[in-house]
Amino acid sequence: MRIPSLAAVRAELARREFSRFLGWSTPSWSWQWPHLAKMQEVLQALADDDIQNALFMVPPQHGKTEQNTIRFSCWLLHRDLSTRVAMAAYNQELANRFSRSARRLATEIGIPLIGDRAAVQEWQTDQGGGVRAVGIGAGLTGNPVDIGIIDDPIKDREEAESQKVRDSHWEWYTDVWMTRNPRHQVMTLTPWHHDGLQARILNSPQAKRWTVIQLPALAIEGDPLGRQPGEALCPDRVTREELESRRAMNPYTFEALYQCNPTPREGSLFKVSMLRFVEAHEVPVGLPTVRVWDLAATSGGGDYTAGVKMTGPDAEGTFYVVDVVRGQWDATERNRVIRATAEQDGPLVRIGVPQDPGAAGKEVVAAMRRLLAGFAVYDETETGSKELRAEPLAAQVGGGNIAVVRSHWTSDLVEEFRTFPLGKHDDQVDAAARAFNSLARKVEVYFA
């Protein structure tokens, strides 16, 4: 009985497992970062027919194309030379670049190609499989597909913001791409727009056939990799500090490209493009200042407790959001944070707490007064909807009269403004609205 060589064993293991293929075919690269390993797991499940389609939303420059498009297509051919792969990108030039890299790797690992069928746009194995590269919008007539791979269908912000381009992409997807009847689909992208190709697919009847992996650059609650909130996706490539710097430059773009959570540029209530952004030292001193809390009491999940500190108006009628403290704390930790924040703010900052209707609301306010002994505390009975309470603040945002200090919490606040009232959370908006309302009109102040 002939014993297979070590090289043959490694080649066979690489044929069976995508993760082994990566190390076998490109041993000098690092493929073990958690975000890459997670995508490897999903791609393996797709190739094994355990799932039908996979959608990966990943920030730029995190290795997604090298793994999910170039090397995955080669692995499919390594394990079955008859597999027919279609590879699409936002234009033919980029698709050709991906195809050229895949063809080079295929040659290096010994996949047999037909000499007269080895053009970069279409190359074939000696068993009928191969790769066809197309730009979004190009035809695929006469080319049956087993696995369809779409990588970054949107080129830039200009394309993303164009309704005409988005409609054209959708028509191509439904009228050209899907008529090739791909058995499986892989889509890997940085999501530019809330109405992009990925969103239209997930809002279609086909959504249930897709496994979705969203990997934000900075982790949020429920991270698929088990990261703590705020932890960077791959610190070896992009550190948390660098990501926070990029977030501060353009929160709207950061939320879309890096957090993989594109939202409408303008919300239905808050015109966030009219917000002004300032440095902390630019905020005038000596203005009336309040810190208003929106209270929750669940640790590690559910609603947030948020305390928004606001000052104003200055001589020009501008109000300033100067600080936000926010977290998912149980009642004990929440109270500790509220007391510590009050001590840091100092006795000149009034503290607002909401009073829900009924006896329970009064008990909460009484407890807050005891907790904040020595500070100026006022309460307001919650009346009307959150939208109604937010309208005066929204009007001032639209008038350019609200300035926000640039800080680590700024983009989260802006995104909550943008998505209000349809967003997942509204604690910061509610606290900010009540802070503004208390500054804009006289309120009765209680001293604990």
Mind explaining what this structure looks like?
The chain folds into 2 domains: 6-258, P-loop containing nucleotide triphosphate hydrolases (Rossmann fold, 3-Layer(aba) Sandwich), CATH 3.40.50.300; 272-447, 2-Layer Sandwich (Nucleotidyltransferase, domain 5), CATH 3.30.420. 39% of the residues lie in helices and 19% in strands. It is built from 15 helices and 16 strands. It has an 8-stranded mixed sheet, with helices on one face. Strands 9-15-12-11-10-13-14-16 form an 8-stranded mixed sheet, sandwiched between helices. α13 packs across α15 (427-440). It is elongated, with a radius of gyration of 27 Å. The chain starts with 5 loop residues before the first helix and ends with a strand. The model is unreliable at 443-448 (pLDDT under 50).
Secondary structure elements and pairings:
Elements: H1 6-16, H2 18-25, H3 34-47, E1 53-57, H4 64-79, E2 84-89, H5 92-108, E3 113-119, E4 122-125, E5 130-135, E6 147-151, H6 157-160, H7 163-177, E7 184-189, H8 197-202, E8 210-214, H9 240-249, H10 251-258, E9 276-278, E10 289-294, E11 305-311, E12 319-327, H11 331-345, E13 350-355, H12 359-371, E14 376-381, H13 386-398, E15 402-405, H14 410-419, H15 427-440, E16 446-447
Parallel strand pairs: 1-7, 1-8, 2-5, 2-6, 6-7, 9-15, 10-13, 12-15, 13-14
Antiparallel strand pairs: 3-4, 4-5, 10-11, 11-12, 14-16
